[in-house]
Amino acid sequence: MDRVCARRGTAELSVLGRTVSRVIIVSTDGSCLKNPGGAIGWAWVDHTGPSASGGEASGTNQIAELRALYEAVAAHPGPEPMLIESDSQYAIKCASEWLAGWKRKGWRTSTGGPVRNLELVRAIDRAITEREGPVRFRWVRGHVGNQFNEMADELAGIAARAIRDGSLTPCEPVGAQEPVTLF
Q: How far apart are the C-alpha atoms of 136 and 23, rounded to whole Å?
């Protein structure tokens, strides 16, 4: 299974009683076979059909969840609003709730420690900022039959196992070539 390039898909969404057309809805998930340090897989599934997955030889479940979110945003440029569904409250909060405070504090947490997975968090921030359309997030409970969450979970697991077994080439880590400046 190779990483797939996807074309943009759209759907309609009702927001406060109004129908907003051309909202891109994507579910994301990550998988780590041995947390920490095992092969990881990530996946996103566009609710209109396209999907992509990949992985790395070693990481954590948090890295896999963040990578899935990053890849989903990067694969869906354009002006359409985007809604990302994830079962990872950590990934959602990293990309939304905590981001502004971390930036304001020079990429430090509320306790003064360094932000974990900083390269990925900064890449997500850039991808969202550079995207013309807005990006929103919705938490969904995992493993309760949500069709698109289950599909993303399955694809992420397949990718992690394929990385472990050597049948899929690992993706380059996000931010591997980017210099990181800590304040």
A: 10
Cα–Cα–Cα angle for 178, 169, 171, nearest 5°?
A: 25
Angle ∠(112,114,120) on CA atoms, nearest 5: 140
Catalytically annotated residues: 29-30, 65, 87, 143, 153
DSSP type of residue 90 = H
Tens digit of pLDDT for each residue in 136-151? 999 999 989 899 999 9
- CB-count burial class (<10 Å; 0-12, 13-18, 19+) for 77: middle
Domains recognised in the chain with CATH numbers: 11-165 (3.30.420.10)
pTM, entire model: 0.85
Helix or strand holding residue 36 (H, E): none
Q: Which helix (H) or strand (E) holds 102?
A: helix 99-104
